Amino acid sequence: MQIYWTKINKIIEETPEVKTYLLDCPENFTWEEGSHVHFALKGFNDGDKPNRNLIRHMSISTIPQENVIGITTRIKEQCSEFKSILLNLEVGDEVAIFKIHSNVPLKRADKNVYLLSSGVGLATFRPLVLDYFERADNVNQIHSLNIDSSKDFLFPTIFESAVDKNFTAQFVDNRKDYYKEVKKLVADKDGLFYIVGSNEFLLQNIAVLREQGIKPEHIMLDKHEQQLPDFLPSI
């Protein structure tokens, strides 16, 4: 396993509780849209065993063309040891990244794509949308639906409806409105539905989609293949 040590290039305050850490891109480090990576802080591998309290599994919120690795995360006032340390890091500090993998690349299957997310889960979809904007081949249109009770919706300059790009961005701040909108989207039985959020959020969305007749193979989750049966038993 190769561990890449790299430096924080920039820290962006997206909202009062959400920050994006832009990391220098190590030589030969590549990824595709929808990728996640293990993100670790100094000291995580000092002992005989890795200190898992200093490691997190994070989505990469940038695309390679941006030449930086973006890690977007919510840090609340009461937070874990990991996020408490992260909050105090500055530009120039070193962090580690390793074990990159993508579960949700953008499928180009001549279908409509629906991106369903909760809160900062939108960071996983940012690269898919940017990739679509750069090359819309074999994707009919994309509709993003995000729920965030904080009302500080993320990436407003990217997640902005654009008729000329066949892209719709929709934000709601409560679950009742969110599921009302999901039930409208599932009228498209042939669409591809990507879901990112907590396990509870995934299961609730899957239940709604399956009740409305969406096939398991049309539901995309940011989970390793061996985890999928826990959410979609027929896979």
TrEMBL record:
Q: Which UniProt keywords apply?
A: Dioxygenase, Oxidoreductase
> InterPro entries in the record, alphabetically?
FAD-bd_FR_type, FNR_nucleotide-bd, Riboflavin_synthase-like_b-brl
Q: Where is the FAD-binding FR-type domain?
A: 1-107
Q: Which GO terms describe its molecular function?
A: dioxygenase activity
**Domain of life of the native organism:** Bacteria
SUPFAM superfamilies, alphabetically? Ferredoxin reductase-like, C-terminal NADP-linked domain (SSF52343), Riboflavin synthase domain-like (SSF63380)
Name of the protein described by the UniProt record: Dihydropteridine reductase
Cite the source lineage.
Answer: Bacteria, Bacillati, Bacillota, Bacilli, Bacillales
